[in-house]
């Protein structure tokens, strides 16, 4: 299966997608990994995301999706959960099936008995509770700090690095959501690995990037069909 990735949104997240996808595909016994990247514009994405210009961003992604099709890809994915704010609009016009990084999450949480999660990510992800796509899982965020946490996440994504102070702020935000009843903290921003990788925050952490990568790795190893990856979320989890 030849998979296309729209990356660069941001660069650090794209690198992690690449690293983890190579590792997961190998674990699943993929004979080879056919992978093509197209580079997106993070500043354009940030501007459209903040202004909720979904159609405009979908049109900005469209030439990249076409480029991936021309390269021989059978499907594509966005290496940013924040970019999924225009996922529905993009899926309608894209020349290839799009493998969502958000759709599988609800089933993933439910399959592990997690009933309530705390969210860290972009302003829109936190404000909309993962774009309203959680049906079986309750989500919470620190509503009074969405602007602060969202701006900090944006700065980390653009810079591709996370300072000690930013890391401490993210980890503390997770701790406070746990105190409000969350059973796990979801890294619903693909650059949050810069803050949490190698850390022990003292509470359960679920990296949404890993759920998405697990699904893509299953595709790469021909363990599931494109139809299953794009139309059914049940039992699609990393390591399954």
From TrEMBL:
Q: Which Pfam families match?
A: Asp_Glu_race
The UniProt entry, under InterPro entries, shows: Asp/Glu/hydantoin_racemase, Asp/Glu_race
**Any one GO molecular function term:** amino-acid racemase activity
SUPFAM superfamilies referenced in this protein's UniProt entry, alphabetically: Aspartate/glutamate racemase
The protein depicted here goes by the name: Aspartate/glutamate racemase family protein
Q: Which organism is it from?
A: Alsobacter soli
